[in-house]
Design a protein that fits this description.
Layout lengths: L1 E2 L9 E3 L1 H14 L11 H10 L5 H5 L3 E2 L4 E2 L7 H18 L1 H15 L1 H4 L14 H23 L10 H23 L8 E7 L5 E10 L2 E5 L8 E9 L4 H4 L3 H7 L2 E10 L1
Parallel strand pairs: 7-9
Antiparallel strand pairs: 1-2, 2-8, 3-4, 5-6, 6-7, 8-9
Length: 273
């Protein structure tokens, strides 16, 4: 679950991970133009981008409470005994759909703890308390084993073996990372607090990456440069629910509290500079 920074005088918006990935799927379908290659294989990439955090589904139904805030835990603040489970269940879910989806999802899970394979300076593994490191190490070793097994399976089929070309594989991985972090730009921060941000290693092709910047232009309109989507001015949307500290106590747990909180939608447009 993502707890968005709140507007002044209002409770924060809780964005379920399936709501986050629904926005990611919108971006995935729209990604690509004359300057940026579209994801390929398209259907499988749209699927995994739209389900890359599917392992959170059960936890998000009735999340644990952060004692310091009285709210559900916010994303990577979630204790490792839960976070390592969601990190494993997401590739499990995607692998059931197709081995390639499982591979990309597993790379996403492993990369989050390890600087996104060198694409990010953030090393989550370095921030993990010493007592949790054996638990995390077992999960990460399991994902490397999964990747080895799935690559062997994909490589046995002549129709899919070409997908394992390292440059092509990491082009798809980087597309997922860009789309994920672009969605987080909106999901994690209230519109009044959003400012310019630069996304590194956005792939134009398997051989070329660029930096993409985003900046608010006017109410619910954001400028991207260079522009990686097909339709200039396309509208996107996501939903969440307002949550208050202690709300779960008055509603017999977060499951009931979230059920009683109406969904709020935010819509925005992305335009080219």
């Amino acid at each position: 679950m993502i707890i968005q920074t709140p507007p002044a005088g209002a409770p924060p918006l809780a964005v379920m991970m399936y709501e986050h990935t629904a926005l990611c799927a919108q971006f995935a379908r729209a990604f690509g133009n004359a300057q940026f290659e579209s994801p390929s294989p398209l259907d499988l990439m749209i699927y995994v981008i739209g389900h890359h955090d599917a392992g959170w589904a059960e936890f998000d139904r009735d999340p644990a409470t952060n004692a310091q805030t009285g709210l559900p835990y916010n994303l990577i603040e979630t204790p490792m005994r839960y976070l390592t489970v969601t990190s494993r269940l997401s590739p499990d879910f995607n692998e059931r759909h197709h081995p390639y989806c499982g591979l990309i999802s597993s790379m996403h899970s492993w990369g989050l703890y390890n600087g996104r394979y060198g694409l990010s300076k953030l090393m989550l593994i370095d921030q993990i308390p010493e007592q949790d490191r054996p638990l995390v190490a077992r999960m990460l070793d399991g994902e490397l084993e999964r990747q080895k097994r799935l690559k062997a399976e994909i490589g046995r089929d002549p129709k899919t073996s070409g997908w394992l070309d390292e440059k092509t594989l990491f082009q798809n991985y980087k597309q997922l990372q860009f789309i994920d972090t672009l969605a987080l730009y909106f999901n994690r921060t209230h519109r009044e607090e959003r400012g310019p941000q630069t996304f590194e290693h956005v792939p134009r092709s398997a051989d070329e990456d660029v930096e993409v910047t985003i900046e608010p232009r006017e109410a619910d309109v954001y400028v991207l440069s260079p522009f990686p989507f097909a339709a200039d001015g396309a509208e996107f949307a996501f939903a969440g629910r307002r949550v208050r500290a202690g709300q779960q106590q008055a509603n017999a747990g977060w499951l009931e509290a979230l059920k009683c909180s109406p969904a709020e939608w935010e819509r925005f447009r992305l335009i080219s500079a």
